[in-house]
Amino acid sequence: MQKGKLRLKSYEKILSIVMLLIFLIQSQGFAMPLTEQQQNLNEEETRFYTDLEIEILIDEISEAALEAIEQAAGEAARAAVLSMLEREAITLRENQRLRTEAEALRRNRLLIGVLSFIGGLITGVVIKNHLP
Fold first, then answer.
1. Computed over its alpha carbons, how large is the radius of gyration of the chain?
2. Quick check: helix, strand or coil at residue 110?
3. What percent of the chain has pLDDT above 90?
4. What does residue 96 show for φ and ψ, rounded to 5 degrees?
5. Largest Cα–Cα distance of the chain, in whole Å?
6. pTM higher than 0.70, yes or no?
7. I need a surface site. Which of 20, 36, 78, 92 has the fewest CB within 10 A?
8. What mean pLDDT comes out for the span 64-93?
9. CA distance 27 to 19
10. Rounded to whole angstroms, how far apart are CA atoms 28 and 21?
């Protein structure tokens, strides 16, 4: 009992030290200088785009988006096919296992039937020979 209390006290000391270190590490981060923001372009440096440039940019973005959508759809279809094949393989393995068990059960029943028949014949012969 006392051993557990000593262990608990040592855990409390370790926990308080860790919490103190975390507090000190975080407070050092607040003392760091702030990063400077980039200044916006002046009106003189501002560039205006023509309608044609905007349309070309929109076309390029649309084309890239369509390619990304097609790629994502292909990957989703591939994942669906793989999932379906995996389920099919599991089903085939389960069917094979059930067939094997059914065949073993059929053999056991046939063996029991043959042994019962032979046992009945032997019993009949023994009884017939021992009766007057």
1. 41
2. helix
3. 39
4. -65, -40
5. 133
6. no
7. 36
8. 92
9. 12
10. 11
